[in-house]
Structure formats: structure tokens, C-alpha cells
Amino acid sequence: MRLPTHEQILLAIYYDPETGLFKKPKGELTGGCSARGGYLSIYICGARFRAHRLAWFYMTGEWPKQEIDHINGDRKDNRFSNLRTCTHQQNNHNQPIRKTNTSGIKGVYWNKRQRKWRGQVCLNYHIHHTKGFDKIDEAEVAVRALREELHGEFANHGSHTTAR
To answer: Domain spans of the chain?
Structure first.
């Protein structure tokens, strides 16, 4: 498939970077439809595009070469200020708390053998662990610090719960 040019997109649709919403030329909103994984997609110029990638192209004039991350983790929030380019690994760092988490705190688990709360953070397919703690609050502080150290600006402490 041949990608449309920036000019073709600008003629076919209007994007409001403050709201993240798209409008057709006659002014009616086109919220898009939910695509696999909870992303919004928009059918335009004979093809379907994910709304966040389309927003990036609309604003920059270049199709993203890498992935586009939703900073707040909400895949339907396509405000330009909520979008940033990233590698696949950085995008994975910004994941929410997993559905299988039983502690309620991202990266914190109960170690039965030690009878302690521990934290874990993954970077480059290597799992980094905190020491064991008697109190879950202490493990939470430690895992947050480790995540900040390893993931930097892409550290997500599980405040959003959108399944990825």
C-alpha cells in the first residue's frame, strides 16, 4: 500500500491537537473505531490508520519510523501533547499494571520462600530485583526507584489500568 502524502491527509481530514479528535471536511467528528488492542483507527484515503500515528503524521508531516507511545497510557487519548516517538522497548516500559498482579502494586510480589515483599523491573530481557521487605509500602518505594533508574521518562508506576 502506498501511504498518502501530507497534503492528501490535510485535505481529507482535520485534526485538533488540543482534543486529539479528527473531523471530516464537512465538520462531523470522526472518532474512529476501536481496533485490536484498544487503539482508535480511522479510515481515510482508502486505507485504515491508527489514530495516534495519523495524528503524528498530521502534526509533523512525517510518518513515524518508530512506535508512538501514549504518555498517559490511554490508547484513546490522541492529544498531540500525549504522544511521543519511542522504541518498542520504551513503549513496553510504559505498560500499566498487569491483570495477573496480586499485590495491587506494579512490580511488587510476595516471595513465599523469603516471606518478604520484593520488587522486580525488566530491562533488556533481564529482570532486576529489589531486596526483600517486611512491609509492602517499602517494596513499593524500592520498585518505583528502580523503575525510575532503569526506565527513565518511560517509567510507569501502574497508575493507569488500560490492558495492553
So the answer is: 6-86, 97-154
Tell me the pLDDT tens digit for each residue of 6-16.
999 999 999 99
What sign for the dihedral angle of Cα 146, 150, 71, 32?
Answer: negative
* CATH placement of domain 6-86: 3.90.75.20
User: What topology is assigned to 97-154 in CATH?
Assistant: 1.20.5
Name the amino acid, one letter, at 7. Answer: E
Q: What kind and span of H or E run contains 84?
A: strand 83-86
How far from chain centre, in Å, is Cα 45?
Answer: 26
Rounded to whole angstroms, how far apart are CA atoms 141 and 124?
Answer: 22
pTM of the model: 0.78
Mean pLDDT, the chain, integer: 89
pLDDT tens, residue by residue, 109-140: 999 999 999 999 999 889 999 999 999 999 99
Per this entry, what is the length of the chain? 164
Q: Rounded to an integer, what distance in angstroms lies between the CA atom of residue 14 and that of residue 110?
A: 50
